[in-house]
């Protein structure tokens, strides 16, 4: 538990630094993946949970018939997200500070669960995947956009070299795709490049109905 708490503190500190400059810098880098994920979630529709909502940069892109709740661990990022919602995003039901590994929702609460650029940040990715699965309704979708480690080549060498600096970066550059494949109820239905020269990948999972 202590190690996880220390990791959470590192995440908070990292994103306190990133919050003021996240949108102008990372907003551009993440545009393609973000819009693809929101479009896929909007096709599912209904009640949507965005885990790792950050500054809320994706919130205006959801269709207005979706009912969205966003959550994040970073207080500094959430302040910006709340300002966005206050500007007129009436389909956003709430912006909450919450640990992605301990979601305070009942089982099968959402039609779709979205986690963009999150899974390499959290201390326990497998635990977070279990939570995303748990709160998703049967027949619903879990949608990820993320960087996953290259299997070989120069990029793999760079990622391994950067791995020891993960706490300062606020994410793990050598994150293996296999780590999101452990939930038996989730079947991968789509995997495709999602921008920035193939560095990011969009993955859609559908939850079994029985």
Automatic annotation (TrEMBL):
Residues 49-143 form the Methyltransferase type domain. CDD domains: AdoMet_MTases. GO terms for molecular function: S-adenosylmethionine-dependent methyltransferase activity. InterPro entries: Methyltransf_11 (IPR013216), Methyltransf_Superfamily (IPR050508), SAM-dependent_MTases_sf (IPR029063). Keywords: Methyltransferase, Transferase. GO terms for biological process: methylation. It comes from the Bacteria. Gene3D superfamilies: Vaccinia Virus protein VP39. The keyword Cell cycle does not apply. PANTHER family: METHYLTRANSFERASE, METHYLTRANSFERASE DOMAIN-CONTAINING PROTEIN. This is SAM-dependent methyltransferase. It comes from Phreatobacter cathodiphilus.
């Amino acid at each position: 538990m202590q190690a996880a708490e220390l990791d959470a503190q590192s995440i908070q500190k990292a994103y306190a630094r990133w919050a003021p400059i996240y949108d102008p810098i990372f907003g551009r880098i993440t545009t393609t993946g973000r819009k693809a994920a929101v479009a896929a979630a909007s096709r599912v529709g209904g009640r949507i949970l965005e885990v790792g909502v950050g500054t809320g940069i994706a919130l205006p892109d959801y269709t207005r018939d979706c009912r969205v709740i966003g959550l994040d661990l970073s207080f500094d990022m959430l302040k910006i997200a709340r300002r966005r919602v206050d500007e007129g995003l009436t389909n956003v039901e709430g912006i909450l500070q919450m640990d992605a590994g301990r979601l305070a929702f009942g089982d099968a609460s959402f039609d779709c669960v979205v986690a963009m650029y999150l899974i390499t940040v959290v201390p326990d990715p497998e635990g977070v995947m279990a939570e995303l699965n748990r709160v998703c309704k049967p027949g619903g979708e879990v949608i990820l956009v993320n960087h996953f480690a290259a299997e070989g080549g120069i990029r793999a060498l760079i990622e391994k070299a950067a791995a020891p600096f993960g706490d300062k970066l606020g994410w793990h550059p050598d994150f293996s795709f296999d780590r999101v494949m452990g939930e038996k109820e989730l079947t991968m239905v789509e995997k495709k490049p999602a921008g920035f020269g193939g560095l990011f990948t969009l993955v859609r999972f559908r939850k079994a109905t029985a």
